[in-house]
Every structure is written in C-alpha cells, then in structure tokens.
Amino acid sequence: MAFTHWHSGPPYFDFIARVTRAKNARGYLEVGVRDGTTLSRIDCPSIGVDPAFQLGGNVIGKKTNLHLYQMTSDEFFRDYEPSKIINAPIDVIFLDGLHQFEYLLRDFINSEKAAHRNSLIMLDDCLPANAEMTERTHNPEGRANRDLAGWWTGDVWKLLPILEKYRPDLRVTAVDVRPTGNICITNLDPSSTILERNYYAIIDEYRGIEMDDALCARFYEGRTIIKAESILHGFEASLFVGA
Predict the structure, then answer these.
(1) pLDDT in tens, 21-78
(2) How many CA atoms lie within 13 A of 127 on its CB side?
C-alpha cells in the first residue's frame, strides 16, 4: 500500500490569516496569489504578486491599501522593494508560487532580504500527502491514486532539508494544516548570503532526487509537525511565529 500522510488541521488560508492577525502585521506580501483565496482574508496593507491573476470576490476586504503586481516573482524582487511600496515593514510573507524547488528557493532568498529579523516567512505545499504529488510536472492522468490526482505540490518539499542543512540558524516549524502543510520560518537574517552563494551547488545536489513511497515515509519519520491550534492558542504563537 502506498504511503499517505494526512493533515487534519484547519485550511492553510485560515491559518495564515489568523497568524497574520496574531502578529499584528503592519505589512503582508504574498507570492502566488492566483484567485485571492488567501489574500482576501488578510486585513493589513498587502502586496500580491502573480504572473496571471485569476481574482474572484472582494480581495481588498478591510485593507487600507492593496498593491497587485502581475509579473513573475523574480521580476518583482528585481525591480521593487516591498517595504517601500506600502511604507511599512513587511512582517509576514507567504510563498505559494511555482511548485519547483529552485523557484521556491529563490523566492525565499529574495523574501528574506525584503524582511526583517522578526518577520515571518511561510511556505506552502512542503508537506505532501503522498509521493506522487511531488512530481515536477503535474500529470494527473498518470497517477495511480485517482482520489488525489488533482493535488500537486511539486518538489518544494526539498526546501525543508535544504534549510536544515544550509541554514540551521533559522527557526523552521512544520505546521499541520490542510491540505499539504505550512512551514513557518522565523529568526531571519536579511543579511545572510549563504543560500545565494550556494544556490547552484544546492540545485545540483537536490535536482536529481525524486520522492518515492520509501523516501516519503522517511521524510516524516522523526519530523515534528506542530498542531495549528497549539500555535494559535494563547501566547504560544510567540514561540513559533515571533512576537
């Protein structure tokens, strides 16, 4: 039987909205907005980046200002300084862009530069439910598990071992949210160049690795995954997502 790891927490977009409120965020940046499901739940001044928006509903909500950039994240970070756009620090960043690990790695590198020491960066889709959904190109017709054929995380799961190896100074917390987890990263160092300097070595090291059932099981063995409610309860948020 194929290995499957189910997450039972709240939907990721609800968790992100609640954490952003718990941090009293002054500014929020989202990469990979798509239809605005997550962005619409954020109340503070926000920036959204996506090469092809498919927005629906009231995305601005209670925000005093919202800035949308229809371009790739590489172009955005090259041409803009997020904190200058909203005239405030970027306290929370959510990365949900292209589901290939080299893109998420670049988004993280650029996001950390745009953040500050006490910012929170959150990564989507890094806790896949099974090995099949980690394929680099989504191929639902070729999936054995037909029930989960529409789910696609790509190989962004690799960010966890990459950060654990190259950036042990970061505080990396895996959170049990549906459908494919959330990774909260704090203790940021915007001046760090470790990942940037080693970018191509990291790509060469990890690009040939493909997740199968055995690797998926090992990936979860011994890995602590925190319940979302335990983070959001009382003052516990400060332990995992900063003050």
Answers:
(1) 999 999 999 999 999 999 999 999 999 999 999 999 899 999 999 999 999 999 999 9
(2) 26
CA distances from 67 to 35, 40, 118 (A): 15, 13, 23
d(CA 175, CA 222) in angstroms, rounded, equals 14
Instruction: For residue 14, give the H/E element and its range.
Output: helix 12-22
Distance, CA of 232 to CA of 240 (rounded, Å): 9
Torsion (CA) 12, 107, 243, 34 in degrees, nearest 10: -30
CA atoms of 155 and 136, how far apart (whole Å): 6
- Read off the pTM: 0.96
Q: Place 243 in a pLDDT band, splitting at 50, 70 and 90.
A: low
Structure tokens at 122: 């959150």
Residue 236 has pLDDT above 70, yes or no: no
Within 8 A by CB and 6+ apart from 50, the residues are 31, 32, 33, 34, 68, 69, 70
Matching residue, tokens 């099974």: 130
How far apart CA 104 and CA 74 sit, in angstroms, is 11
Alpha-carbon distances, residue 242 vs 13, 38, 142 (angstroms): 19, 20, 42
